[in-house]
Each structure stands twice: as C-alpha cells, then as structure tokens.
Amino acid sequence: MGIKKTAKHIITWLYDYDKVRKFNRKAAKIISLQAAANAWIKPSGEETVSHVDFWKPMVKNVNTDWLLIYGNISGLFDPHFVPESVYYTLMEPCLNNKAFAKGYNDKNYYSLLIDKSLLPETYLSNIEGELYDSNRKYLGTEDAILMILRRASFVIKPAVDSGGGRDVSLWHLRGEVFVSDNDDRLTVEEILHRYGKNYIIQEVLDQHPFYERYNHSSVNTVRIVTYRSVADNKVHVINMVFRVGALGKITDNQASGGFACGITSDGCLNGKAVDKNGNVYTSVNGVELESGLKLEGIDQMISVATENATRFCYSRILGFDLCIDTKGKVRIIEINNINLEINFLQMLNGPLFGVFSEEVRDYCVMKPRSFIIDFDV
Q1: CA neighbours closer than 13 Å in the CB half-sphere of residue 192
Q2: Which of the listed CATH numbers 3.20.20.60, 3.30.470.20, 2.60.40.10, 1.10.240.10 matches domain 98-112+207-363?
Q3: DSSP state of 80
Q4: How far is it, in rounded angstroms, from Cα 216 to Cα 208?
Q5: How far is CA 111 from CA 116, 118, 220, 284, 288, in A?
Q6: 167 in helix, strand or coil?
Q7: If you ran DSSP here, which 8-state letter would residue 337 be given?
C-alpha cells in the first residue's frame, strides 16, 4: 500500500471514529433527557436482532440506542431505522458526491439550476469578496450600498454552510441604519464587513396565512426529502416534515429552538411534533397540530421538489426546504445535499428510506464512498 493510500485510510478512520463517538454521545444525551420524564420501553430481543442483522453488511457494531430512541418516539420498532453514525459516515457519502456538494449547495448559483421565480429575489451576491447583482453583474461597493439602501428590509445569509439557521439575520431600515432581529444597529457597510465574503442578500418573504399562524416571526418551511433510486434513477419523495420556528425567531430550525411536525405520505399533519431533544408535542406555539389536516400547497411543493431533484446529478438524496407565499406560489428556500438532518424525520415518520431501505443499504455496501477534506489556511 502506497503512502498516499495509507494516509487516506488513516484520515478516514480517524474521521469515522470521531463522528461515531459524537453521534453515540448525542444518542446517550437524548436518552438521558427522556429517561427522567418518560417510561420508555426497550425493543424486544427479536427487534434488536433484526435491526443489527439488517445493518451487519455495512457495519460490525450497530449502536441500538437509535432504535430505542426512534422506536419510542415514533411508536415503531422497525429494523430499517438508520443510525445517525451509519448515515453520515457510510450512506450519505455514497449517495452524494461530497467533492461537488458545496458547489451545488451555493445559494448564489441556485438560479443557474432552478427557475428564478421559485427562489426569493436576490438583491446582492458576494462571491469570493466581489459584489454582484441578481444577474451576477459586477457591482462596485458604492453601487451595492445604494442598492441595499433602496430596500426597506432584507435577509442576509451565508451562501453555504447556513445549516441550523447559522448566521441568518433579518434587517429593517430605520433612518440611516439597519436594525436586526437581534436589535443590532449597523450601517450597510458594517453589515457587509461583518459577513466578509460568500453571502447572499435576499427579499423578505411573506408566507401564506396557513403557515404564518404557527409562528409569524419565522418563515415556516416544509422539508421534503427526495431520493433518486439507484435502481431506475426515478425520483421519489421518501420523507416530509413541517418545520416551525420558536416564537420571536426568524428561522424554523430545531437548532434555534424550533419544532419539526410529522407529515403523512399524502401531505397531512400526523398530529405530532418534536424538538431537537426528542420531546414530543401535540401543539406548537399554542397552535394545535390537527391530525389529518392537509398542508396548503403541499402537492405543488412535492412536484417542485421532484422536478428539481433531477438537476442535482451528483446527489441522490436531497432535502428541499420550501414555503408557500401569500400569492399561493411555491418558493424554494434551500436545497440540502450534505449533512442532511435525519433525526426528526425518523422520530416522526419512521425509517428514512422506507421501502427503499434494502436497496440503498446494498448499494452503499458495494459503492466506494466519497471523502473530502477542505480547510482554509
């Protein structure tokens, strides 16, 4: 074995070891938080053996804590539940080519792949420190500032790596400065300096009243997970949740205190929501989750997700975050092709891949996974 190949094996082993430890600790934390309040039952010996046997072709030691967690919260002790460590270290890197992930995840380039009318209007793009308008026409700093000053409000977010709502902020013009959702008061120059490079500034979307009633401060999105089959290349919707932000927050992510609400395969609420710690709710922000209530525009959202999933040829599994605006139009907020959060999906709706579980497992056993190390120096 050559030096390069040996180094690669060592690095991937260390990466996997670190990830597995991280997710094992995460599972233990959820169990400890829930043990005090809930009389969780353990999966039967037969259920545990079935789970371990199913994943044995991929991994020698399966952490059955995830079966305990998903089983108790969802009410299903299904052997096809995907442990987080298995998904992130072995499955996603096989299904999605990580070497291309960040490039295709760049919000500044969504419009090259997707109909612009489906996206929030872009006011300004920063790409490697240079400023561009919505057509990627170069702008000087003064012109860019004047453009932003013509807007009463805007949202700014990193072009990539904005998962969990990280560094997403909302700004409103107040006199000569902009005021953020955190009550920061900055000039345009100061805001642009804070974000440095590789960000996008977009319109503030007004969401449909159906979704706004669950929380008016955040744009509440539907996460639709698509899978492009390794058997026939057809795109299938395999999981859906409705995400609602915490009161006063502008993002709907669980990381910022939000909730994920279960959606049935026919687009209706299943009456249950969870937070990041696995706590279960039947209402969010004081609004009941009416079981069987069909989500506004869900059929259109499913169509948009399945049609656009075919444009991302390097990724077989994608997480679309979509909303419906006040005109009833579907808008794509984000398309996730890396580090796709799977916990809330399985807690609420059952195994991630459903009827495709065996197909995906067998594919990932045979196919080499992608791996990339990226860092700034």
Answers
A1: 22
A2: 3.30.470.20
A3: T
A4: 10
A5: 5, 9, 22, 34, 37
A6: coil
A7: -
Measured distance CA(18)–CA(335) in Å, rounded: 27
* Cα torsion angle, 252, 224, 47, 26, sign: negative
Q: Is the pTM of this model over 0.85?
A: yes
62 with 82: CB under 8 angstroms? no
The structure tokens 């353990």 sit at 42
Helices (H), the chain: 3-35, 45-55, 65-74, 84-86, 92-95, 98-104, 110-113, 141-149, 188-195, 209-212, 298-309, 343-349, 357-366
Report the distance separating Cα 283 and Cα 289, nearest Å: 5
| Sign of the dihedral through C-alpha 247, 252, 255, 258 | positive
Q: What is the pLDDT of residue 377?
A: 39
> pLDDT for 247-304, tens place per residue?
999 998 888 889 999 999 999 999 999 999 999 999 999 999 999 999 999 999 999 9
Percent of the chain with pLDDT over 90: 82
- C-alpha neighbours within 13 Å on the C-beta side of residue 327: 6
**Domain positions in the chain:** 3-94, 98-112+207-363, 121-202
37-92 pLDDT, tens digit each: 678 899 999 999 999 999 999 998 899 999 999 999 999 999 999 999 999 999 99
Residue 129 to residue 126: CA distance in whole angstroms: 6
Q: Return the residue matching tokens 């096989």.
A: 94
